[in-house]
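I am still getting used to backbone structure tokens and would like to learn alongside you. To get us started, please write out a protein record for me. Once you have written the record down, we can walk along the chain together.
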Amino acid sequence: MIKKKNIYVFTSPELKEKVSVAIYFTTRLGGVSKPPFDSLNLGFHSGDAFLNVLKNRRIVGENLGFSLRKLTCAEQVHGAKILEVKKELIGKGGENPENQLSQTDGIVTKLKRVPLAMFFADCLPILLVDPKNKAVGIAHGGWRGLLLGVVKELFKKMELLFKSIPQELYAFIGPSIGPCCYEIGKDVAQEFEKCYPHLLKSKKSKIFLDLKAVGQEQLKMIGIQQNKIVISEFCTSCRKDLFYSYRRDKGRTGRQAAIIFLI
């Protein structure tokens, strides 16, 4: 992973030889928003001023070489609905939150130069690349979405539409909250104990969940090979200097983005 103008770029030499794809994870640095959204807040739904978020999105587009007219975004609701982005959906939600893809937590496409984006402040950014069939997908994975099967649904949509097979896929999990900081309640812990008891840790009567490891295990259950799964080491809660964290900031915070597109 390398850094480019306060934006992290995920790369894989092996993948680069097979397909031209751009994978970016923004930080909170380099924008115009004021505290507590300082400064590169990209989430219209965060409570920040609309024009500040729009300016921040334009900054990112200019830095990464794409137009907001093509930036395609969804209304994330912690579900497992996945949509294909066809020509008529290009640009939905990029400049206007009123026309974002409704109640959707994953989007996929085969179209080139169409950036797909989702926004995060602790949850897992999950990205899939199919170099053989030239297709990409992105999903928003909080604990609810993971339990609902958003990872599996993302793959199933790519399998159905693009004939993707697990052995050919590359997966990326972006900056998200780590097991060091992700405390959960007993009700949530009971749900994860059914399938992932080994990913729960108790510390001084508190329960912590390794959300990234849950995402990784679900990717492996699909059949994606371990050596084709890349996971960011960053914990969004620990790194206040770099990332927004809904949990750390008690809901009053901005959103960073995960962005992917075929070149």
